[in-house]
Amino acid sequence: MSMLMEPTSSLRAREEASELLPLNGWRVLVSRAKKQAGVLTDGLSALGADVLEIPFIEIRPPRSYKALNDALKLISEYEWLILTSVNGVEALFERMAKLNIPKRVLSHLKIAAIGPATRSALEREGLKVTVMPKEYVAESIVAALRDKVRGKRVLLCRAKIARDVIPRELKRLGAYLDVVEAYETVIPQSSRVKLRAVLKDPDRRPHVITFTSSSTVRNFVSLLGIRSGKSKLLTGVLNASIGPVTSDTLREFELNVDVQAQEYTMPGLVKAISDFANSPTGRYRMKTGGDPSSKHS
Question: What is the pTM of this model?
Answer without folding.
Answer: 0.79
